[in-house]
Amino acid sequence: MVASFSAEVLKLRKRPATWVLGLIFAMVVILFGYLFTYLFTVNAPEENAPPPEIVEGFRQYLLPEGFVVNALINFASFGSALTLILGALAMGSEYGWETFKVVLTQRPGRLGFFLGKLLAIGGLLLVLTVAILGVGALASYAIAGLEQASVEWPSFADLVRGIGAGWLILVTFTALGIFLSTLLRSTALAIGLGLVYLLVLENLFLGLATQNETVQAISETLPVKNTLDLAESFGAVPQGFAAPGEAVEPTQAVLVLGAYAAVFVLLSVLLFKRRDLA
Amino acid sequence: MAASDNSRERERSLEMTESTGNGPPLVETGGLTKRYGRITAVEDLDLTVRRGEVYGFLGPNGAGKTTTLRMLLGLIRPTSGTATVLGERPGSEAGLSRVGSLVESPAFYPYLSGRDNLAVMGRYSGAPASRIEEVLGQVELSGRAKDKFKKYSLGMKQRLGVAAALLKDPELLILDEPTNGLDPKGMADMRTLIRELGRGERTVLLSSHMLGEVEQICNRVGVIQHGKLLREGTVEELRGGEGLVIRAEPLDEAVGVLGALPSVEEVRVEGETLRLAVDPERAAEINQKLVSNGVRVSELRSSGQSLEEVFLELTGESADEESRQPAAKGGE
Ligand SMILES: Nc1ncnc2c1ncn2[C@@H]1O[C@H](COP(=O)(O)OP(=O)(O)O)[C@@H](O)[C@H]1O
Ligand SMILES: [Mg+2]
Questions:
Q1: Mean pLDDT, to the nearest integer, of A128-148?
Q2: Å from A8 to nearest chain B CA?
Q3: Structure confidence at residue B282 (pLDDT)
Q4: CB of A157 closer than 6 angstroms to any ligand 1 atom
Q5: Which residue of A253, B24, B227, B237 sits 20 to 30 Å from the alpha carbon of A18, by its own alpha carbon?
Q6: B213: CB partners within 8 A, 6+ apart
C-alpha cells in the first residue's frame, strides 16, 4: 500500500489534468464566488441593486467573516463536479491506457494498489481543500479592502471544521467518480453519466422538494442537498445559493456524506478485486 | 531455415538439457481453462516451463496465448484448472516480485516521460532506483528517456515495455508477442535482445505466432491452437527425432552395409527410401561407406521435419507470411 501510495503521488503530481482541475476550481471560486457576486450585488449600480437587506447579506457572505461558508458553497456547486471528474480520471484512465496490466504485475496486490491510490487521492483532496479555502480567504480579504470594511476572520475552530467539511464533500464526489469509472471501466462514460446525475437529477430533486413531501424526503438522503446544508451550517447563505427547504442537521449531513463515500469506495474495491482485467 | 540455424539450435537445446533437467518447473499449469461465455479461449492446458530455458509459446492469432499469460500473471482468473508460477499462486506478491512481463501492447502513462514511467513502476515493485538507468541502457532508450511516452514510436514503446519488465531483474520474463507491429529492423533488434536476456540463469517465456522467431530464439516449444496445447517439447523433439533419409540403389545391398555399421541403431525400409536412426552428423561417413561398397546414393538428408512442417501438420494452418521472411535476416 505504501508503494502504491508513493507511485500514485508521483502520477498525480505529474499529471496535467490534476493541475488543470485545481486551477479551474480556484478560478471558479474567484470569479463566481467573489468577483461576479460582488459586481452584481454589493457593487451593483443603484438602479439594478437588490433591496438593501439582501445586499447586506451578500456583504457578509463576501467579507472575510464569511469566507468559509462561501468557499464551501462553491465546493458544493463546482467542487462536486470537478472532483467527480478527478475521481473518474484517476481510475478510469488506467482502464483506458491499460496500465493496470503493467502496474498490477509489478507487485502490489489489487487491494494494496487500490488503497494506496485512495490514500494518495485523499491526500490530494486535503491539499486542494486547504488551497481553495486559502484562495477564498485571499479573495474575501480583497473584497474587505474594496469595501474598506474591518477584517474579521472566522474562529480557528470554524476554520478547522470547514477544512474537514470541505474535504468530506470532495471525498464524497471523488468517490462517486471512482465508483462510476470502476463500474463502467471507462472515463468518458463515467464522467458523462456522473455529470448528468449531478447537474440534472440532483437539481430536479432540489427544485421539486418544496412541492412534494416525498420528493423532499428523498432529496434529504441525496448527496447534493446534504452538501449544501453542511455548507450552510457555517454561516448565512444568501437566498438562491442554499438548498431550498429546511436544512438537515450538520451531523446528519456528515453521516450521510460519509456513508456515501464509504459505500462508493467499498463497491469499487469489491468490483476491482473480483473482476478480470482483460 | 538455414542449416547453420539448425545446428546452432541443436547446440542450444543440448546445453539446455544439461542445465535444466533438475529442480521444479518454474511455471506449471494443470488443466488450465478459461471460458468467455460460449467461447473457450484456453482449454485444459498443461504447460511446463523449466528453469533457465527460453520457452516458446507458439500458436496462430486467437489461439489463446495472451489469455494463458494473463492467467499466469493473475490478471484474469481461470475458469478451472491450476497454475503455479515460481512455486506461487499466480498474481501473488511473492511470485510477482520475481516475474517481469510485457503483455500484448506496451501500456504506460502517456503524460509521463519514459524515465518517469519506469520510476512509477519502480515505486510499485520496489525495484531500486538505480535499475532505471540500467534497464534504459539495456534497451537503448537512454537518449530518449526524457521524452513523453505518447511521443514514442511503436518500437520505442515496445522497448520501454521490455525495460519495465526487466526493472525487477526478474527470474522469469514473460513476453507476449514482443515483436508484434515492429519493422524488420526492430524485430531483429528485439530478437537479439531477447536472446541476450535468455542467456544465463534467467528463464524466458515468449509467446509468438511466428515460427521463425520461436525457432531462432527458443529451446523448448509449446504449440497451442484453439486454446489447446497440441505438443510440447524441444525444437528437436517436435521435429520428430534425429535420423537420416537415404535413397540408394540397390536397396538390399544398402540395407546390408548399413546394418553392419555400429553407429546405426535402426534401418527401416519405407518404399524406395531408407530411414535410419542415427546421429545426422555421421551423414558423410555413411555416404562414404555406401559408395565404397558399390551402392549408388541419390539422396541423403536429415529426416527431421522442418518446424514449419510440424507446425502445419499440428495446426493445419500455414504460418503467417511474415513468420518466415524476417527469420533469415533476424538471426544476426
Ligand atoms: N475478454 C474476452 N472476452 C471474450 N473473448 C475473449 C476475450 N479475450 C480473449 N477472447 C477470445 O479468446 C480467444 C483467445 O484469445 P487470445 O488469448 O488473445 O489469443 P492469442 O493471444 O493467442 O492471439 C480468442 O478467440 C479471443 O477472441
Ligand atoms: Mg495475443
A1: 96
A2: 8
A3: 83
A4: no
A5: A253
A6: B56, B179, B187, B191, B206, B323, B326, B327, B330
A276 vs A81: CA distance, rounded Å: 29
Proximal ligand: closest to the CA of B57: 1
pLDDT for position B270: 78
Which residue in chain A has the smallest CA separation from B93? A107
Cβ count within 10 A of residue A116? 22
CA A185 to chain centre: 23
pLDDT band at B116 (very low <50, low <70, confident <90, very high): very high
Q: What is the pLDDT of residue B10?
A: 42
SS3 B170: coil
> Considering only alpha carbons, which residue of chain A is nearest residue B107?
A99
> Which residue from A minimizes the CA distance to B92?
A109
Distance separating alpha carbons of residues B86 and B80, to the nearest angstrom = 20
Burial pattern B284-303, b for ≥16 Cβ within 10 A else e, equals: eebbebbeeeebebeebebb
* B205 and chain A in contact, CB less than 8 A: no
From A85's Cα to the closest Cα of chain B, the distance in A is 18
Of B167, B155, B37, residue with least CA distance to B105: B155
- Identify residues whose C-beta is under 5 A from ligand 2, the ion: B 66
- Write the pLDDT tens digit of every residue in B228-282: 998 898 877 777 666 788 888 888 888 888 888 888 878 888 778 888 888 878 8
Whether A276 is in the pocket of ligand 1, judged by its Cβ within 6 Å, is no
The mean of the pLDDT values for chain B is 85
Contact status, residue A88 vs residue A187, Cβ threshold 8 Å: yes
Look at residue B6 and tell me whether its pLDDT is greater than 50: no
Q: How far apart are CA A207 and CA A194, in angstroms?
A: 19
Tell me the pLDDT tens digit for each residue of A158-202.
999 999 999 999 999 999 999 999 999 999 999 999 999 999 988
**Contact yes or no for A74/A32 (Cβ under 8 A):** yes
Size of interface A-B (CB pairs under 8 A): 87
Closest CA to A227 of A207, A208, A241: A241
- From the list B104, B56, B53, the residue with the least C-alpha distance to A105 is B104
Q: Where do the domains of chain B lie, and which CATH numbers do they carry?
A: 3-98+170-239 (3.40.50.300), 244-302 (3.30.70.100)
Binned at pLDDT 50, 70 and 90, residue A278 comes out as: low
Which residues, 6 or more positions from A169, have their beta carbon under 8 angstroms from its beta carbon? A72, A75, A76, A79, A80, A227, A230, A231, A257
How far is B317 from A98, CA to CA, in rounded Å? Answer: 31
Enumerate the domain spans of chain A.
Answer: 2-274
Task: Check if the interface score ipTM surpasses 0.85.
Answer: yes
Q: Is B39 on the interface with A (CB under 8 A)?
A: no
